[in-house]
Amino acid sequence: MRLPIMAGNWKMNLDHVEANGLVQKLAWTLKDMKHDAKRSEVVVLPPFTDLRTVQTLIEGDKLPIGFGAQDVSTHESGAYTGEVSAGMLAKLNCQYVVVGHSERRQYHNETDAIVREKVSKVLSAGMIPIVCVGEGLDIRKEGAQVPYTLEQVQGSLRGLPGEDIAKVVIAYEPVWAIGTGEVATPEDAQEVCGAIRRFIAEERHIDVADAVRIQYGGSVKGDNVAEIMAMPDVDGCLVGGASLKAEEFAKIAMFY
Ligand code: PEP
User: By its UniProt entry, which HAMAP family does this protein fall under (predicted)?
Assistant: First the structure.
């Protein structure tokens, strides 16, 4: 069985002091609501500058919350000003790294080839990449969301052994639904998430497809999460705005 994963992408929000406050509040809220860690995994993805603080809090207080980063360098070390390597993130005990978020693809020209390099660096460092894919509004209007997204999946994971693909989390995030309040219908989410799983089964092996966790992302909130999570190929959500509020994110984690 695939453990659902609810990951909060904070984007460029919250300094390390605010991060401390939000993680503490999230942990209390989850405890109060009697969240069952066997029914959903809760992960926060703060900015780089917050990671050490979040690590210290989560590990020190043994909180049932995972954490990771929002991006990583394609390089291992050296003269790459402003970059952060997978090794550095692994040293902070990050478990996850978001790769190829649509904002990185759009504002930093990240191609599938770059995403693929990042995925392989993250896996080599012993962490799990959350690989983002998804179509823009123009592609959706043409009805080409499935082939478009499968091409991104193929381009982002090409060459990886099946055992590595099985560990990866894929986040299907239709770009038109990110931060817009416009949520894909559960059927829209299922159409593409199901197609991704079938594609992996065909290209690799049914066992790999069965193991891989596929998230939906795009304006997920406490009051729409249950219907999305009811879809058979949706194994969690990548959550932006709603992950900045402890109660709302806890409600999402408790979709079951
Ligand atoms: C995201 O940042 O990946 C995201 C899905 O954002 P939001 O939930 O705010 O749409």
Answer: TIM_B (MF_00147_B)
Residue numbers of the domain that contains 152: 5-30+41-74+82-253
Q: Is 155 marked within a binding site?
A: no
Quote the number of domains for the chain.
1
Annotated active-site residue 35? The verdict is no
What's the 255 CA to ligand 1 centre distance in angstroms? 17
pTM recorded for the entire structure? 0.97
Mean pLDDT of the chain: 97
With respect to residue 36, please indicate whether it lies within any of the assigned structural domains: no
Q: How far is CA 178 from CA 34, 135, 184, 246, in A?
A: 29, 11, 10, 19
Residues with Cβ within 8 Å of 138's Cβ and at least 6 positions away in sequence, in order, are none
- ipTM > 0.90, yes or no: yes
- Is 129 within a domain? yes
Is residue 35 assigned to a domain? no
The 10s digit of each residue's pLDDT in 17-57 is 999 999 999 999 999 999 999 999 999 999 999 999 999 99
**Is 179 annotated for ligand binding?**
yes
Determine which residue's CA is closest to atom 3 belonging to ligand 1: 240
